Amino acid sequence: MTIGKSTWAATAALIWVLVMGLGSYRAIAADAPHIVKADDPNNLKLAFVTNNASDFWKIASAGVHKYEKEAGVTVDIKIPTTGKTDEQNRILETLNSQGYNGIAVSVITPSDQVNALNRIARNTNLITFDSDCVKSKRILYIGTNNFVAGQTLGAQIVKLLPNGGKMAVFVGSLSTDNAAQRLGGIEDVIKGHNIEIVAKKEDGTDKAKARSNVEDVINAYSDLNLVTGLYSYNGPGIAKALESTGKKGKILAAVFDEEQGTLDGIRAGTIQCTCVQKPFMFGYLASKWMHDLAVQGDALKLPDGGVVDTGVDIIDASSVDEFQKHLAEMKAGG
């Protein structure tokens, strides 16, 4: 049988199409989330890794413990006491070497941790919470839409400063996605309202510096109207700084999260409002997703866009007591 040139050309074209199609399939598969089903679903190793040692994570831990009781699993909670990237990376590498079936992490510096996270994602089910790393190969993110949260707090700032004014922003690090997005949301809402951000101060999660930063800015700007804190411990630091400088009620405060010092500051009139996330749900849902991924593997349907948005609420003097009661109930239930 003799094969003509036209037949060879057609055959070659078919092979090319098949090869290119296979290549496209491989590219798609490579981009898909890497989900690892556990060999023994009754003997799982799961870990929940925070980004610092703030009291904020006590609430999230209560959510972890509630799921542990419901599902009969154990989730190891790991806390980087210094809040530094290298410490968190060491924790993650150790967990990776110990064969964990699922790791959930609040990423400290997303721009610097992509490679470290991708090494983890090759071996286990990696998810993020609170602070995402969208460039990594994490399977999903659980937590706040931080830009929307910033917009929510920004709307409160506009109400507090109806005639405009000067404000300052305080945070552990502006390089983290959650902080940058919160600030971006605030800036998006306050533009056009004659509100100027005159200072942005980072404290590296050092609580003493968080307070002294506020005092320094208050002393530097005699016409400052409002301060805002983007991390949970910034609220209590702001309250102490306003009280120590005699600026309570003269400089307003709008912050994030629900540390006790923040809630006490709202009751005392030192802080006007706080935008609270739902850290209890961070812990509960992160634990549940790690468990389900390890047991069900690829059969588990992932959320749209790979994101579980837990939402936010604004707490002020009118709602702080009811919120505190609800908070205590959640902790007790955990």
What does this structure look like?
With 334 residues, the chain is of the alpha/beta class. It folds into two domains: 132 residues, Rossmann fold (3-Layer(aba) Sandwich), CATH 3.40.50; 131 residues, Rossmann fold. Strands 2-1-3-4-5-11 form a six-stranded parallel beta sheet, sandwiched between helices. A six-stranded mixed beta sheet has the order 7-6-8-9-10-12, with helices on both faces. Strand 9, helix 9 and strand 10 form a beta-alpha-beta unit. The relative contact order is 0.15.
Give a short overview.
The chain is an alpha/beta fold.
The outline comes out as elongated
> Order of strands side by side in the largest beta sheet?
2-1-3-4-5-11
Question: CATH superfamily membership of the largest domain, which one?
Answer: Response regulator
Strand content: 15-25%
Structural class: alpha/beta
Count of separate structural domains: 2
How many beta-strand segments? Answer: 12
The CA-CA distance between the termini, in Å, is 77 Å
Relevant terms:
about 325 residues, alpha/beta, Rossmann fold, 6-stranded parallel β-sheet, about 50% helix, disordered N terminus
Helices and strands in order, then pairings?
Blueprint: H1 5-31, E1 46-49, H2 56-71, E2 75-78, H3 85-97, E3 102-105, H4 110-121, E4 125-129, E5 141-143, H5 146-160, E6 165-171, H6 177-190, E7 195-202, H7 207-220, E8 226-229, H8 234-244, E9 252-256, H9 260-268, E10 273-276, H10 279-296, E11 307-309, E12 313-316, H11 320-333
Parallel strand pairs: 1-2, 1-3, 3-4, 4-5, 5-11, 6-7, 6-8, 8-9, 9-10
Antiparallel strand pairs: 10-12
Helix pairs in contact: 2-10, 2-11, 3-4, 5-6, 7-8, 8-9
